[in-house]
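Subject: Sanity check before I submit

Could someone independently write out the structure tokens for this chain? I want to compare against mine line by line before I put it in a report. The sequence has 145 residues.
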Amino acid sequence: MNKIDLRPEHRSVLAELAALKDLYLTLVLKLQELTDTVKPNLEAMYAVKIGQKELGLLEKQAEVAGLKYKMELKIDLIIENTDGLIPVEIKSAKTWNHDFFLNLEKWNGYSGNQPENSHVVYGGDESVQTSPGKLHSWKFLEFTP
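---
Independent answer below. Compare away.
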């Protein structure tokens, strides 16, 4: 086979072309490595984070269920917010009395909740803070626990 004699400028272009080809192959291999290794690892880490959040939620639900069972009482509504678990009793009576707060007082004794974080919604017209908790008229349900 005949050998073609190239001028020096053509040889430098061929050398650059070979270097670019090697660089391209290196980049393709790195991309394949990222696709095969890093992406699945990131997906697995994300799945673990989601699992941890779901586990935390299940633990909170189990804690609430355990407290209810332990206290042998029924709280009508429990709201979870940044301050913790907020118990709410709902009563249909139009006249309020201290008995509305009995289950909440038991809850507070077991859970360490403070009376100012205990709520009763009832059928009357008055909304007031009482020593065992807050009393809310159903007519003014825009309270924030």
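---
OP: Matches mine. For the report I'm noting this point. Helices lie at 8-71, 102-111.
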